[in-house]
Amino acid sequence: VQLQASGGGLVQAGDSLRLSCLASGRTFRNYSMGWFRQAPGKEREFVAAISWSGKIYADSVKGRFTISRDNAKNTVYLQMNSLEPEDTAVYYCAGRRSPVWAAPEYWGQGTQVTVSS
Q1: Is 69 left (phi over 0), alpha (psi -120 to 50) or beta?
Q2: Beta-sheet pairing, 89-96 with 75-80
Q3: pLDDT tens per residue, range 93-102
Q4: Cα first-last separation, the chain
Q5: What burial class does residue 17 get, using C-beta atoms within 10 Å of its C-beta: 0-12 exposed, 13-18 middle, 19+ buried?
Q6: Which of 24, 27, 42, 91 could form a disulfide with 2 if both were Cys (CB 3.0 to 4.6 A apart)?
């Protein structure tokens, strides 16, 4: 399974961005998918995930970020609203070939999100 993330960029605080992650594979609908991020000097952290059981979010992004998927396009999205400078990071999509979310098996290459104050 290959994952290709896109959609990052430089925005101002309060702006929105939508990240996309295109996955290979014929059974994408059975995958659980997620987003992680890594800020400079910090460890990679969980952001959001989507699976058959629903959606989960990190407390830091609840109410601002929304994860969704389009199985017909083999794509998972991360809509990010009300962006804050603290959201600056490299964002990675991740997935596993299971409808149940757990530790990812596959990782995308990352896309940079920079939020200026």
Answers
A1: beta
A2: unpaired
A3: 999 999 999 9
A4: 37
A5: buried
A6: 24
